[in-house]
Design goal:
By secondary structure, the protein is an alpha+beta fold. Helices cover 30% and strands 20% of the residues. The chain is built from three helices and four strands. It has a four-stranded antiparallel β-sheet. The protein starts with a strand and ends with a helix. The model has no long low-confidence stretch (mean pLDDT 85).
């Protein structure tokens, strides 16, 4: 997977979460035609993939963030998806909103 900027990280004690060892992460890659990165786990975690905005919803990857800890992110993604926003515009909006840390 290409280098990405982590925007939202959810650590928790859900089934398979092992007390935060397998965080749910949303990030963006500035070098990819699929700029939205979703991972579950780090190191030997559960893996991840890159998506376009439509791909986040068609593949249900966005649903990982439909939870209390990341409801704002999910609402931004959902609104952008339903309004037909471009990936590029959404990447810029998310970077401004969340800043990111690599």
């Amino acid at each position: 997977m290409e280098h990405y900027i982590e925007l939202v990280r959810i650590d928790g004690d859900w089934e398979g979460g092992h007390h935060g060892q397998y965080p749910k992460v949303f990030g963006v890659s500035l070098e990819s035609d699929k700029p939205f990165v979703v991972t579950e786990g780090s190191g030997w975690g559960l893996g991840g993939a890159s998506y376009t905005l439509p791909g986040l919803f068609e593949g249900n990857a966005a649903s990982i963030f439909d939870r209390a800890e990341s409801s704002e992110l999910f609402q931004v993604l959902s609104s952008a998806y339903h309004s037909g926003a471009s990936d590029e515009v959404l990447v810029l909006e998310l970077m401004q909103r969340y800043g990111g840390h690599a």
